[in-house]
Design goal:
about 110 residues; Glutaredoxin; Thioredoxin-like_sf; alpha+beta; 4 helices
Length: about 110
């Protein structure tokens, strides 16, 4: 899990050619339940994925009750919470400047 601002996580993932997993949530019960399920309860949970494949991506999460996360939610058009997006390099050639885009999102 990336410790820092979203833009830092974005630039880090872009310059190091890593996937960025964005997780936005709020203080509602279903958001908390969702986070518990993806991080801890399922046999294929995110915690296990991070342990096994952590070199390929970074995770950044934020509560939309805070301004930075709220603005990121608006930027990525998060209509409902919790919101998950996988952002990655979509450049066709390795020698070009990395172009980041949403590969998958769940709203």
């Amino acid at each position: 899990v990336f410790n820092g601002e979203f833009n830092e996580a974005y630039q880090y993932s872009k310059s190091n050619l890593k996937f960025l997993l964005l997780i936005l949530y709020n203080n509602k019960f279903y958001s908390n339940l969702f986070l518990q399920n993806i991080f801890f309860k399922n046999s294929n949970n995110l915690f296990s994925l991070i342990q096994n494949h952590g070199d390929n991506f970074i995770v950044w999460g934020g509560n939309t009750n805070y301004l930075e996360s709220f603005l990121i939610g608006n930027t990525y058009k998060a209509k409902f919470l919790p919101f998950v997006a996988l952002i990655g390099n979509v450049s066709t050639f390795n020698n070009t400047f990395p172009t980041m885009s949403i590969i998958y999102k769940e709203n």
